[in-house]
């Protein structure tokens, strides 16, 4: 049931990513509006994942699991009937809330059923395979659907899966709670949600316009103040949503930072890569999906293997090696152009997927194993929350960089292509106001080919900047993993929140809860 739940949670991610070009064309959206299609899903996930984890610990994980499935189904139905960008954002937000409930609950179910962290790694590997399987299947299904009907029908797929999972859960899934349950931390929840939402809003709108605009400055100021209040609130709370003492564990700190930085670079780059296939290579959705399947398919296979061998290999070695492979793959993609063949791209995408698969399972398993067993649910939720914050910032940051660089270089490429005068001014103004996608709705006349060639070259300028930034972020994550992770962590011992060796058995009485000093 944990695997089925995470499959439902992540199914919309690539199905929407490969459909961005079709959505942009049908709804005439700007680049910033298109970024919100992805972020409307990721933001609620990032903002409420910790609360969902605590709610499950207190009131029962099965209840939260079923609520997540129902929210995912309602969100899919809302997007399925969307005829405006606002309704699509609403549907995505509801699906994101469902995913926020499902992610920590599914990991907590595994942690409850398999308390031995060495044995648990294998099951988290299967969980990660289902997560990556949803990413792989979602894109291909969306591509197949869009070959025959409207983009809205991509949201039909999660509905029956979620409803079947609800029926099975009601009949077969046992209830479980944390051994020492607290109560909901509303001040922490409110300040965390405000900080995350204001930060992503400020980055998206600042990239689309100017970071000096009043609403952008206010949003970023709210993000800073809310972030500080969150830290103060959690330090003083008797039942914190995220116990900051978790960060005394080097394993938890390292994997959380790595997850956030990696997802910022990778989710943002997937957003750019999908637009590259659609706008520059002029591929249909199914063609885009097959190319992304090379990445997710390779990651799917490797993550399953990683789950089985991570108790024999150092997670530091696996995570660092995987991140360096991802960095190398991103740098090789700098040579991609408008006419780069699938064969030439495939080995680079394959390397990218292999690196991702090598990171996903040990990163999640190490975060859970590096803290006392009663805090495994909070650790899983915290790791996922920071991962989703990075995922929310990714399309915002890289989308802003892409648009800024492409729009600034477009006039030069238009001149090189022989497009000048009123048409060049018209194209430049439209892209500056609404992004590169605005060209698709313009009457370009006999110079359409030259205009599209110039737009493609401008997009490639922006994509190369995004590749350099993504590669830099991934390399930074590799350095942090190598420096902060203990070489033996996760192989034959875990580390408690003070950074000292923990008891050999995860449930030992010697292990103590964070901030209490009482036996777990």
Automatic annotation (TrEMBL):
InterPro entries in UniProt: MFS, MFS_dom, MFS_trans_sf
Ranges for domain Major facilitator superfamily (MFS) profile: 1-489
Chain residue ranges for the region called Disordered: 500-520
Parts forming coiled coils: none
Secretion signal, residue range per the UniProt entry: none
Subcellular location per the Swiss-Prot or TrEMBL entry: Cell membrane
Keyword field: Antibiotic resistance, Membrane, Transmembrane, Transmembrane helix
Transmembrane segments annotated in the record for this chain: 35-55, 64-86, 92-114, 126-147, 153-174, 186-204, 216-233, 254-277, 289-310, 317-337, 349-369, 389-407, 462-485
Membrane topology: Multi-pass membrane protein
This protein's record includes keyword Kinase: no
Protein name: MFS transporter
Species of origin: Streptomyces salyersiae
